[in-house]
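Let us practice reading a record.
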Amino acid sequence: MVKAEGILRLLIVDDSLTDADGVINALRSAGHAIRATREQTISAVEQLLAGHTWDLLICRDTEESASAPELINLLQRLDKDVPCLVLLSDEANKQNLFNCGAKDIIMYGDIQRLQFAVERELANLFDRRLARRNQRALRESEKRSQALLESSRDAVAYMHEGMHIYVNSAYLSLFRYDEVEDIDGLPILDMISMDDHAKFKSIFRQFSERADAKPETVEVQCVKSDGTVFKADIEFSHARVEGEDCTQVVIRDDLDNITSDEQLQLLRDHDLLTGLYTRLRFMDELETVVTNTAEGGSDAELLYIVLDGFQEIKENISLGASDVVLKNIAEVLRKQRQEGEILGRYSDQVFTIIIPSDRENEVDERAEIYRKAIDGYITVVDGKDILLSCSIGISRISESVSTGDVVLDHADKACMEAQKENTNSIERYRPETDNQRLSEASSEKWQDRLDDALKNDGFCMFFQPIVSLHGEEQEIYEVLLRLKNNEEDGELGYLAADEFIHHATRLELMGEIDKWVIRHALEKLVSHRKTHPKTRFFIKLSAQTICTHEYVDWLCTSLNAHNLEGNALAFEISETAAIENLEQTKAIISQLKKVGCEFGLEHFGSGIDFSQSLTELDVDYLKINGRFVENMAKDAENQAAVKAIIEMTKQAGKRCIAEFVSDANSLALLWRLGVDYAQGYYIHEPSKDLNYNFEDDDL
């Protein structure tokens, strides 16, 4: 199934709903059945890419919050095989986009060229997917053949010109050899009694000279490695291994194999010391996950855990004691395991874990739990404390990963980087690209700057009133975050949130930033309520906070500490983030309402099918996407969109807020359309002071 159900899964990154619809209609007219999603920010695109399978990404050269180079870097970082087409609005931008990694750059409005490029890229994409499927099928076939050989009770070997090139476990056991290397390259005549050499050579020569010869059997005396002689039947047949002609040899002795199939499977699947999956069984599980991911399943991640300095520890204690340590470490890992996670002992001091999650922050948390569990383990051997630590490499299992070996190689490389940096640490594998290397310095700089802002109050809050047009009279301010200026920002006193939030999201700092805002907002609210007791704050929450289980408990503690009720606050989250984290959003809305808080959806109407938000989420407010409201008096299409959203909101029994009100005509239109609340620069600019006069609200 190269193309799921004939549906083209399209991700559009564009701030214009009209333009996105134009692209969709152009592709539908070419015969494609479209399932499209539109987004505007890097963080939202990253969530969509991580959690779903896409066939095509189309973006605009004018999109500042999610530029084409950033999007292509994101695709490379997540290891996603999704072709990216850039729609060009300005010919002058074309030169700068040639080296960004886009599959094509097309002038917006050139429908024929767009349709042609989409057909070409989809054909190439489906060819790549088909090739990966065929490779997986071939590997699966080879793996099954190998498994059959290894599990066979018959002793099986392959020979080339009379020399062993492969033997199975039963063959080794029959001749009492310990390792494959002991028999590799050994002539088969060395396994035959001298008395039967002439007989064996005669029959084998006659068989080898006839390419079409049927399988032939000879009865001879065989010799084990310890000199023991036994009678056996040797069957010859022609075969090919890795494209080379060879001879398959099957030896059956007169002794019964008393080991049951169940016992053989148990020995193959489970490590005798730790009880975890063996390397063979773990690789089977890993290949299954790789295949499922490539067939449209969710991404997963692999943890590659190496015990630091374990060889040195083994040298200082007995072999038996080191085995006890490994067994106990396996038990430590098993206790931390969550449902769905797959544990294995990959080698002596290496443990591997498959985590069925496509969210990097969740996997990072799981890796940290495992790291701490090992770091906290102490055992006593011969009166000495044995302290252990580990280094962990993480690699992503995505649709473009061809084999489990590739995933392991990536995780191993990440683990080596962790050991280079510092033992007892965690590193994630990232495919290196030129653009990524160029951005590393900037990323580190933002990490330092945002960390410093959190520690030293480098942020600042501004407040913008939300005023009633037809809704209940309230004194509401939206809390807006700013970052204090540094020398590189020029003369501006503060950076607006959209200039740094995407960096904070990528660095997974939004949870701490949200807490900073709430702590300082509560202090400000307590002070202001002494003279204005009805004042309430609207506060934005990030997707990272929505997915944090202990957030509501922390909020309740903070409210109690400031002697505030929950109804003093209303929280909002973007519509796209809410839909992408639907279950978590539902849960936190329910919890916040029990506390007394209200909840709203920001940028409502961003999604192509935004009616789902009204159906799924029990919110109190819907904030109309400001791009529809801004200058709506001059744009009939935006007016129609705003009117439709207001009508939907009223039918659902919600209250609607229009943001980005920028002129008197737009405000008058909103009044006539019946919007409940409005905010924007025309009404009042954001200010560090809570100085709006709600009682003199003559709009």
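A brief commentary: Residues 111-151 form the longest helix (41 residues).
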